[in-house]
## 1
Amino acid sequence: ESAKWSQLWLDYKKCKDSVEKIAIEVLGFDRAHRVIDSGVKELKLALGRIFGAEVSEGNGAADPFAVKIVKDSAVAKEGYELVSSASEIRITASDENGALYGIFAAIRKLSCGVAKEEISEKAAPSNPLRMMNHWDNMDGSIERGYSGNSFFFVDNEIVVDERTVDYARFMASIGINGIVINNVNVKDAASYLITDRYFAKVKELSEVFADYGIRLYLSLNFASPIELGGLELCDPLDESVINWWKDKVKEVYDKLPLLGGFLVKADSEGRPGPFTYGRTQADGANMLGDVIKPYGGIIIWRCFVYNCTQDWRDYKTDRARAGYDYFKNLDGQYHDNVILQIKNGPMDFQIREPISPLLGGLTKTNQMLEVQIAQEYTGHQIDLCYLVPMFKEVLDFKTYCQKDNDTIADVVSGRAFGNSLAGMAAVINTGNDFNWTGNYLAAANLYGFGRLSYNTELSSEEIAREWIKMTFSLEIVDEDMLTDMLLRSREIYEKYTSPLGIGWMVTPNGHYGPSVDGYEYSRWGTYHRADHLGIGVDRTDKGTGYAQQYYKENAEVYNDPKKCPDNLVLFFHHLPYTWKLQSGKTVIQHIYDTHFEGYAEAKEIAANWEKLEGKIPSDMYNNVHHRFEMQLANAREWCDQVNSYFYRKSGIEDELHREIY
Ligand code: GCW
């Protein structure tokens, strides 16, 4: 029988150690609980495949080996402990999700080659909320989707089938506990997800998720009172609007008792919001928070609010400032079931941006981090770009929001300020392609985000190796090589695209491929300000003042071009091409060098992939091989276009006299 979709990292392979019989015992947990039931199913499947064993349930006294799932209230919420011996693997947890994660952890260890007698781990999630955000539209298209169409929505109908179940399994296996199924741009049929037209199917989907310990969330149209209710306004302080929402949310929870809550994109890129009525973002979020509170739901409110109709001649308005300007002064006013979701950078998921100063800038507000594993600006899942190193940099960033416990990881986990609503969300990179992520290697980002959100202490390399071991069966030298390819890929992509933190020099709309001036004169607030003398945006105290949004320690560094890290220097400063970077190179020479290097290194990793021919299944090999061919064409084009542009602008020769067109 031929598979209809890939099993990703859960495609278990037989290990060397054969075991005839294994018994599964559930102790202290209700065996019939939906999550425990899923866990037992997973164990049966995995142990059967990995050991070729006959797996049975019950008291395994007669069997030589047992896997025990044991309840113990001493274990942390959603955490687990694993210990094993010659006769058993013991998985201890205090709640069902913890038990399921413990089961998947044991399976992961076995899949990574750990002997069944040597399993031990103690884990507790770093973040309470670990979420995936789908930008799936109900017609089946996916905004910024690079792996086919939606597997949730086809022709404005909701699909729940075996693939949905597998999807939930994959997500639970990496610790995800919340999923937003529809695009934050809620229009057309999606506005009706909170009506009878879709309740039955959304409920079915929420049950499939619940079997795997996952809550379903919906993106909400803030103008629903107008579009669904026929009201004339959606002012969050208007009595009739509030009453409409009260009735609506009551109806929603009657029909969807498992719903986690709503995600809202308001006053952003044409979406309706409280600003229309002269209200604040807090007014909008709190109104919905209050209405949903009786049902235990939460409101996740996005901070991606900025003026998207800027004039390029306007040097005062700075898109990077917008999030902080709109939200910081309302710190402390958000109600306790409201959580602000903040993109990692102040612009929009560029290959290199500073960390949003709003993260940790807010000290009295629930907040969570939003990253994007859909590779909108990072190569469309054609180019290899393993993003976990970028996410690690974000999490490790020291905000100076307080003396200790002040990194982004501390802030978004809730540790820094004692929030119980906190966490990480990723704009997901999946679609209905056979392999889910377009490029087989892009699954490393899907896997990696989940693992990192559960345990922010894991290194990029550990995560890469786990994923490789679970996905392929490679000799250690080849695993080393593939790990190295993944770990270098982000920097390589950065080198052949936009230099020194400037970002944006992409083809407008689609965002794949170079167009140095593509966004330079448009309304989106995305400028590099290059002229014949220099390049970069002055965001210092003498420019837009963005650097001053950071706590003093960081503000001082960013404000000074001599202290600012090279990789962000053009984000914060307008500098002459002849400016000497900390590396000792001039700006222009850095541009030339990194572009030639980036293309050369892309060729290197593409050539490395060819060494794996015959060592991995040919469909995987061919899929990635073809993508590398496209990546090389892309890298070449970036290199040539960017170098020619700046050679022509500056008139300065490459010191190494390489070919610039
Ligand atoms: O970067 C922009 C994307 C939009 C997206 C928006 C957002 C969903 O280009 O496609 O809309 O970000 O994050 O809301």
## 2
Amino acid sequence: MRTQVAIIGAGPAGLLLSHLLHLRGIASVVLELRDRAYAEGRVRAGVLEQGTVDTLIDAGVGDRMLREGMPHHGIELRYGGRSHRIAFEELVPGRAITVYGQQEVVKDLIAARLRDGGDLRFEVDDVAVHDLATEHPYVTFGGERLDCDFIAGCDGFHGVSRPSIPDGVLTEYRREYPFAWLGVLARVKPSSQELIYARTDRGFALHSMRSPEISRFYLQVPPDEDLANWPDERIWAELKTRLETIPGFNLATGPILDKSITPMRAYVAEPMRYGRLYLAGDAAHIVPPTGAKGLNLAVADVRLLTDALALWYTTGSATSLDGYSEACLKRVWRAQHFSWWMTTLLHTFDSDDPYGRRLQLSHLDQVTSSRAAATTLAENYVGIPYESAP
Ligand code: FAD
Ligand code: DHB
């Protein structure tokens, strides 16, 4: 079997890449380990940057997002018994975010690929990549062989692509945070119109949403926390303690539909390429979720990879492919810094002494009182402009 681009992983990166390549007339096959229901049901990110929204609309896969997604023009920072709004419409006019679940993006992309006759293979075992440093790489899976011009490693942080790169090629950067997030999806009307990022002495809490009937929450918990320690009543009690900190705010509760624990860590592999293997999305980098950047970075990577591959197929020029990693990494490192900054601003660290806690509160006071500092938050949160391919 042969295709032009073999794509490993049907997460947002792999699916969007396959769709964008199709729009440029480039064929691909997507190989996914899990089944379709799993890929479509996995509850993860929810905040789409303006650029991600525009990318999906321009690619013709934004219709349901435009109908059901929830545009937001600000977020709330809550601490010290008060709430402060970061007003995007004033600080970064014309730019906003849209709350629309990652699994909805994945559903829309799978539907578009299948409608267009795309070759998506689910439940594919034993994917392995070969001859990466030659002009004839290939992928094997479940006893089959897929020959191709290029391989896109879009298989997330735990995939096979990155570990297939020989030792000594990649420089890896890592940071582990001393806490995790407990993510909760609940059938209850959101208690706030906008996202609330709350800093309390008991830890961070985030109130987000998915629709007028479904709310999404996150709680800072210890790094090795066991979900069994979090029966529903405890989750609601803790969310109330951390969010009901301003007069008149009451958190509505309801049935919990999904809960999971995500470790908080940062990782970057450089370069995002080895021979004819190109890494995109979580396969190359992950951020702590406080800045809501993971999914958005995956979209930025595959935009650049699409342009670079299209240039190669139309002119034979490898200039953009050669510049792919460097172009991606500029945005990746900006997102790494912003995600670290938001995480440090809002979480409690056991290592913090009283001095450290006062510094954190002073930092929050600056972000909520200085227009310059608030603008820095806003412009990173809604997303910086895209790099163009070199
Ligand atoms: P993924 O979505 O991980 O997709 C990779 C795909 O590759 C998966 O479908 C996987 O099954 C498949 N795969 C893996 N190994 C193989 C293999 N060997 N062969 C074939 N296929 C394979 N970001 C936020 O901004 N906010 C959040 O709240 C948030 N929550 C998260 C919670 C969790 C539990 C995780 C893991 C991530 C979260 N993220 C969050 C990050 C965000 O979801 C990711 O950045 C985003 O999913 C990246 O997309 P991707 O396509 O690169 O990778
Ligand atoms: C959501 C996730 C995030 O990481 C974040 O910073 C904001 C919202 C969400 O899942 O809705």
